[in-house]
Design a protein that fits this description.
The chain is globular. The chain has helices at 13-23, 30-41, 50-59, 64-88, 90-97, 104-117, 119-127, 132-142, 146-171, 175-204. The protein is built from ten helices and no strands. It has one domain (33-204). The relative contact order is 0.12. It has 205 residues and is an all-alpha fold. The longest helix is centred in the C-terminal third of the chain and has 30 residues, at 175-204. Helix 3 (50-59) runs antiparallel to helix 4 (64-88), helix 6 (104-117) packs across helix 8 and helix 9 (146-171) runs antiparallel to helix 10 (175-204).
């Protein structure tokens, strides 16, 4: 019998899903699970891949950047799949996603945001806690240009996941506490500053 107390069971489905995702970190399939989770979260899965990325990177800090790269590739490919759902399969997926996984109000706001800001909106969603899946599907529905969409996804997702790896590399075991407390605020401020910089450059041209 293990000396470690078994985790308390909970009826909260999100918490149970969270624990299930975290459980992959202690298996030989942690890296494939990270890729699949990152892919799925970009179009329909409710939990972000950061959960598993942090657990894997804390267990093996020397491979943190490798895990971040796996997470980035999976997420960008998942974003491309979300784009394809919106672009070519929306009539099939709309009843399954809209109002269930993606709220109608959020989806309408995102579509309006695309008309005003384009790829900058993709970057903001990819880098910050804004639900990225809403933006990937809406990008396909809005039929925005694929090349800027992919570039913004790569920069946003890569920036976010490699920032997690950097914090873990610098802070060690304190990283999880710092990420839980400050990471979302830091990514929002970073995105605002970066997008504001791009806007300023455009105005100065």
């Amino acid at each position: 019998m293990s000396d470690q107390a078994s985790p308390k069971r909970t009826n909260n489905p999100i918490r149970r899903l969270y624990d299930w995702v975290l459980g992959w970190a202690d298996t030989p399939y942690g890296i494939p699970a990270l890729f699949v989770l990152a892919f799925a979260e970009s179009s329909f899965f409710p939990l972000p891949p950061d959960i598993l990325l942090i657990a894997l990177a804390l267990a093996r800090p020397t491979r943190a950047y490798y895990f971040a790269a796996v997470c980035t590739v999976g997420s960008v490919l998942g974003g491309l799949f979300g784009y394809y759902i919106g672009f070519a399969l929306w009539s099939t997926f709309e009843p399954l996603l809209l109002g269930k996984i993606i709220s109608v109000a959020n989806f309408e706001r995102v579509t309006q945001t695309y008309q005003e800001h384009g790829a900058e909106a993709v970057f903001a969603a990819a880098f910050t806690p804004i639900p990225y899946k809403v933006f990937t599907v809406a990008a396909g529905v809005a039929k925005i240009d694929l090349q800027p969409f992919l570039l913004a996804s790569l920069l946003g997702r890569g920036g976010r996941f490699f920032l997690v790896a950097l914090v873990i590399g610098l802070a060690g075991r304190r990283a999880k506490e710092l990420i839980d407390r400050y990471f979302n605020v830091a990514t929002i401020l970073g995105a605002v500053l970066l997008i504001g910089g791009f806007a300023a450059i455009k105005l100065l041209r």
